[in-house]
Amino acid sequence: MGGVTELVLTAAAADSTRRGHPWVWSKGIARGPHPLPCGAEVRLVTSSGDPVGRGIYDPDSPIAVRVWSSEHDRPLDHAHLRRKLEHAFGRRRELFQGDATTAYRLLHGEGDRVPGVVIDRYGSIAIVRLDGAGAEAVAGRLKAAFVDALAALGVTDVSLRRADKGATPSFEVWRGAEPPPSVVVREHGVPFVVDLRRGQKTGAFLDQRENRRRVGGMAHGKRVLNLFSYAGGFSLHAAKGGATHVTSVDVAAQAHATAQASFREAGVDPRGHEFASADAFAFLARASERRQTWDLVVSDPPSFAPNEKSRARALAAYRSLHRACREVLAPGGTLCAASCSSHVDAESFLGTLDDASLGSPALSLRELHGPPADHPTLAAWPEGRYLKFAILA
Ligand code: SAH
User: Which residues pair with 187 in a beta bridge?
Assistant: First the structure.
């Protein structure tokens, strides 16, 4: 098979690969000449030699192989990647006709069967992020395929963003110019300033777009509290949706500066609203003491569970957060509670919103949402279903 190394999988790993799970853990490799060099292309077979897929090897990760294709006999080359990108980009073209929304995810890694590679579009700018040394190796080899496919979409500037935790991101320009400090995009017609240089992820949390629109649709005439507000996405949709007053709470003052710039861009005077630089838990405790209430409370915290071990602690944190949110909810109010932790599944998350957790039987679950269609996931890959957005009233 063209010099490709063959790895024999355990029965369980072969079955999971066949069902479309994109990861092979190192313990799933039964036999084979590994460790192999990082980025090596491998052919995955069952113990009886039946091929189940083709992937990229990473010796330093517990995910030993990311599966790129079920077509075991075709190389992971420029042509393969081009086909995948054309398919993924074609879907987005259908989803985002017109110019009401100009920021969205063009490629969602495993969900688009291009493991470890994420591409977000901000108008004519694309920001690439790579997860894992395997993706780095492939992207290094096949950069031209990405750049060509993006150019065909009208993307003029392509940069790879590298960000170690806590460090200022750096950019490797693949095409055109380095990203400007900020850019104005539109989300369902609402303009947003995105901090491309210092912002989180690739600049914005594009996965909450439809949930932000939902909040905008529920906000008319309401007093809104947006906890963990970051760049004010939920806040601005609420204000544009007719909220009488919006309070945004985030520890990061820089995020509020971006949010206020977005308010001004959208023609909403930020001085008519509150931007509190505070810890959300402390803010809620204080508000509760003062008997302050809001008609609509949105809670979208960072992941509380970075790994499986922290799951129990995360559930307790969600529970106390949700209880505190309920305490500042006006009678007849609506609570929108989100979780972006892949280690907390939907049922467990809902368990932190039950009557006992909230301390009252007043609220029912009205809607439960996940990420939008530009963030596809795989049926066989529960680890990919990280985002939950529950609406209770
Ligand atoms: N809702 C946002 C995304 C939220 S990201 C959107 O739609 O775009 C999580 C945010 O929580 C980050 O901005 C981070 O600064 C903030 N944060 C983290 N810990 C916090 C805390 N204890 N109190 C308040 N904000 C916090």
Answer: 190
Triad 96, 387, 314: Cα angle to 5°: 160
Ligand 1 centroid to Cα of residue 229, in Å, is: 6
Report which residue type is found at 149: A
- Of all protein residues, whose CA lies closest to atom 22 belonging to ligand 1? 279
- pTM score, whole prediction: 0.96
- Give the β-pairing of 190-195 and 182-187: antiparallel
Nearest alpha carbon, ligand 1 atom 10 = 228
Taking the C-alpha atoms of residue 103 and residue 117, their distance in angstroms, rounded to an integer, is 17
Whole-angstrom distance, CA of residue 325 vs CA of residue 226? 10
Residue 284 Cα distances to 104, 287, 325, 379, angstroms: 32, 5, 7, 38
Q: How far is the CA of 270 from the centre of ligand 1 (A)?
A: 19
Label the pairing between strands 388-392 and 329-339: antiparallel
For the stretch 248-272, pLDDT in tens is: 999 999 999 999 999 999 999 999 9
Residues with CB under 6 A from ligand 1: 205, 208, 212, 228-231, 233-234, 249-252, 255, 279-280, 300-302
d(CA 10, CA 52): 12
Q: How far apart are the first and last CA of the chain?
A: 58
